[in-house]
Amino acid sequence: MIGGRATGPLSERKATCRAGSNIAFIKYWGVAGGAEDLNIPLNNSISMTLADAHTTTTVAWDDSGCLPEDSIAIDGEQLVGSSAERTVAHLDRLRALAGVPYKASVVSTNNFPMASGIASSASGFAALTVAGAAALGLRLDVTRLSAVARQGSGSASRSLFGGFVEWERGWGGGESEGNSLLDSRSVAHQLHSEDHWALRDVIAIVSTSAKRVSSSSGHRLAATSPLNAARTACVGAWLETVRQAIADRDIGKLGPILELDALAMHGVMMTSTPSLLYWQPGTLEVLQAVRAWREDDGVPVYFTIDAGPNVHLICEADSAAEVERRVGALPAVERVLVSGPGTGPELSDGHLI
Amino acid sequence: MIGGRATGPLSERKATCRAGSNIAFIKYWGVAGGAEDLNIPLNNSISMTLADAHTTTTVAWDDSGCLPEDSIAIDGEQLVGSSAERTVAHLDRLRALAGVPYKASVVSTNNFPMASGIASSASGFAALTVAGAAALGLRLDVTRLSAVARQGSGSASRSLFGGFVEWERGWGGGESEGNSLLDSRSVAHQLHSEDHWALRDVIAIVSTSAKRVSSSSGHRLAATSPLNAARTACVGAWLETVRQAIADRDIGKLGPILELDALAMHGVMMTSTPSLLYWQPGTLEVLQAVRAWREDDGVPVYFTIDAGPNVHLICEADSAAEVERRVGALPAVERVLVSGPGTGPELSDGHLI
Description:
- 2 copies of one chain form a homodimer.
- By secondary structure, chain A is of the alpha+beta class.
- In chain A, 36% of the residues lie in helices and 22% in strands.
- In chain A, helix 1 packs parallel to helix 2, helix 1 runs antiparallel to helix 3 and helix 2 packs across helix 3.
- At the A-B interface, helix 6, helix 7 and helix 8 of A face helix 6, helix 7 and helix 8 of B.
């Protein structure tokens, strides 16, 4: 039904989807020039979809003409300002695909705190895309949904799949790379299902205050860092190591690259203009602790850090309780969340998409 | 008297020198391959010699043969282990220049705490070089002394001059670059005297615990970072800006480059193998505070960070009291030291060298 007109009463134009957030092992940082509004990344990225950190979103399209504008509520609060505009722009994408003018009522809840270091935009735009498309009766396969979700938030493309996921940058093959080709090629795919490896993401929340610069603005700044090209030039080799480490379930191979890429990304962020310094004192408390636990006590745990101050500690399931206990005892840590790998998005009828 | 035999009683083979430490605005990080033991740097660096953070060293050479080995005391403690070996190696350089076998008694005191974020190796090896050479009657000009001091500790080469100083890497001109040419070319020179600009270094000490990896070991690791070449490729442009900013006494031009190079250097350190994470929670507390004071309150202060957790806040003299007051009020800051630009080394007879 892509491009066709959707029909039927309001009650049928409604769907609910639950999607997991994800934690990247190789990071997405920086958009390719010339196609900024498509969120085409500078490099491929690899992530684990999270079972226990998810967003549930209901989209109801109004074909009666009674709703004068889109209404968007997240965790009980009506969205306003630039966050609302970003969601409306995503609803516009779905309206354009279906060829309908309907306004939407969107109600979304996260089972984790916003600004907690868990990417709510990843799970949020994945759930919005799947629920919105389903409610419009759009028949898009998961790869196409991944491309649509990517335009809302880059990392949301990865949350369209469960388990271990790679998002292709979709360019660099030497062929003509017009925007529509880029759009269709820059999609995620599953490397391994959620049953493949019992990894854990133990999330140390050291600050829940809002960032000074959102990560979507930050992506535009990556190219201003003198270190950016050096990082992206290395990512190809790191991706290969991470793919192999996941295939082999080898935390000792995964971990060092996980830390290296996170530190390289923050090196890029800190040296962009303006400089982005996402870390807080608690961030360093956790980083230094993780290094000491590993080097002094032999605990096989490694860190990664998204565009914020909180720290994700990656370990295997049999170390998770010990890591959770240790990290929870650090003075700077306000709260600890733990998640294993989860499935891709589920519609409320229980079907995976 | 280079290469000649020194003569005279012990009492005449003794000299005392006081030398200031320095704070680099463009950092020295990483040694050029193939000449590691000469401390030939990857890039030029620029620093300010500190008036109020200095080392006073007395060297007495024993031509009686009574002293069986070198004796080295710093701040009242006899030096042992690798630090002692490093000092003995430097005494060997002076012995070789003079062609004498004399053992030495070295007594050195710092007027600032060791491991305080002030480079005691810079002031220490500068004072040792000047006092040791003077006590042997070696007639070396200050440029040659700069090269000798550099072999003890790279940044010591800059402490041979007062005020604002640049240390040339000494290579890259396309000519033959044998080790002896490198050694004679990689020397410091003064850009401006200490009277040129009333800058202040307000040093926020957040930790006085010893580093896990000394900076002299760290220099060998720079090349393992995927970000290192990108930093050194940019340093040429940054040096030009810093030279101009110092010439113009323009803190608004100096400051952003100061922060950029410090963050780039720490990006290199963090992504080397093994990874060097010198920062502590207090480091981030100060960095975030400086950014907020500048952006929210208009205080013209900028940070730089050496190979350690403490933070150097650079501002003009008329802002220093305000900066000192603010930084002293931060919970993580244990102690604040303040210094302006100082002279080059002074021998105990009061003469500048």
